[in-house]
Specification:
The protein is α+β, with helices and mostly antiparallel strands. Helices cover about 35% and strands about 20% of the residues. It folds into two domains: about 140 residues, PurM-like, N-terminal domain (60s Ribosomal Protein L30, Chain: A); about 180 residues, Phosphoribosyl-aminoimidazole Synthetase, Chain A, domain 2, CATH 3.90.650. The strands form two sheets. The protein has a seven-stranded mixed β-sheet, with helices on both faces. A four-stranded mixed β-sheet has the order 1-4-2-3. A hairpin with a 5-residue loop joins strand 10 and strand 11. Helix 2 runs parallel beside helix 3 and helix 5 packs across helix 8.
Length: about 325
């Protein structure tokens, strides 16, 4: 098995970059120099986001295939661009490499990067490689463009709260993965939802190009309630969530029922769903339904914005209400 030190830093960069297939047609200078150079298109805004994945915190090498890790590392950053209504264009990747990793591992990792770059037409324009004494880490920066920007600030009392897709799959999948319970179709589906999330780039783009009055938006990375609190704090509003309207996949329902798992913690606080969470006035619902019917993507109203600031309540199936704290989602420093 070929070792990284045999190639050296610049040999490794050349080895990995030569495997990347997609090149943006408007690039002036791509990977290989001190900087990548590209034109700034008139009439659009530049959006930029960065995310880090650290071994032992965000993933374990013994449960995460390198190809899947590459796909996920890029997808979670694309999700941030989507949440702002942007179209991702370029990515920069920095790797912190411990001695235990092989060139074969990195080839597979970059195969995952390559798949997502090709799927979303994103050019991997550069980055850095550094030695790491113990843990492997990946930092991805994505640059995108947007004509219309969605932010967390702007939700108003009376607005309805929507999410794309289903909730809780990734969290339950992680639970199964940690228990090495990966047998059966339902378990494999849920584990795949955790290992390989889908960035809702196309869906966010459709919203950005529509006339629907999206008043706020965020992607669900740390859990429905924690991310909803981000919107509430920025918009100085509160929210009410309806338990009976939380979207669940059949695989999630069957697995919870079979294993006597309470679904609510996963639905409300699980995190890493990378679905879009957004608000809009009630008069925009018909247009929204038509938009997502064309896209063949599930979109569900899960609640409504309320006047009382910074308070999120869950309306239970029996009609009772429960105040939900904003600290139960994922927190890097409580892991």
């Amino acid at each position: 098995m070929r070792k990284i030190k045999e190639l050296g830093e610049f040999g490794l960069i050349h080895h990995l970059s030569s495997r990347l297939k997609f090149r943006a047609s408007d690039s002036i200078l791509g990977i290989g120099d001190d900087c990548a150079v590209y034109p700034a298109n008139p009439g659009v805004k530049q959006v930029i986001s960065t995310d880090a994945l650290v071994e032992g915190i965000h993933f374990k090498l013994n449960t995460t295939p390198p190809e899947a890790l590459g796909r996920k590392a890029l997808s979670v950053s694309l999700s941030d661009i989507a949440a702002m209504g942007g179209t991702p264009k370029r990515a920069l990747v920095t790797l912190g490499l411990p001695k235990k990793l092989s060139v074969s591992f990195l080839d597979k990792l970059y195969s995952g990067f390559n798949e997502i770059c090709n799927q979303f037409k994103v050019e991997l324009s550069g980055g850095d490689t550094v030695s790491s004494p113990k843990s492997f880490f990946i930092n991805v920066t994505v640059i995108g463009e947007a004509k219309r920007i969605f932010t967390r600030k702007g939700a108003k009392p009376g607005d309805l709260i929507f999410v794309t897709g289903t909730l809780g799959d990734s969290s339950l999948g992680l639970n199964l993965l940690n228990k090495k319970n990966n047998g059966g179709k339902d378990n494999k589906f849920l584990i795949e939802k955790h290992l390989e999330p889908t960035a809702r780039v196309e869906e966010a783009g459709n919203l950005a190009h529509s006339k629907i009055n999206i008043t706020s938006m965020i992607d669900i990375s740390d859990g429905l309630i924690q991310d909803l609190y981000h919107i509430c704090k920025a918009s100085k509003v509160g929210a009410r969530i309806f338990q009976d309207q939380l979207p669940q996949s059949p695989e999630f329902i069957r697995t919870c029922t079979k294993n006597k798992i309470s679904p609510l913690p996963h639905l409300l606080n699980g995190g890493e769903d990378y679905e879009l969470l957004f608000t809009l006035p009630a008069d925009g619902v018909k247009n929204l339904s038509r938009q997502f019917l064309k896209a063949k993507v599930l979109v569900t109203q899960v609640g409504e914005i309320t006047l009382k600031p910074r308070r999120v309540y869950l309306e239970m199936s029996d009609g009772t209400k429960k105040l939900l704290p904003d600290s139960e989602g994922f927190n890097h420093f409580y892991v």
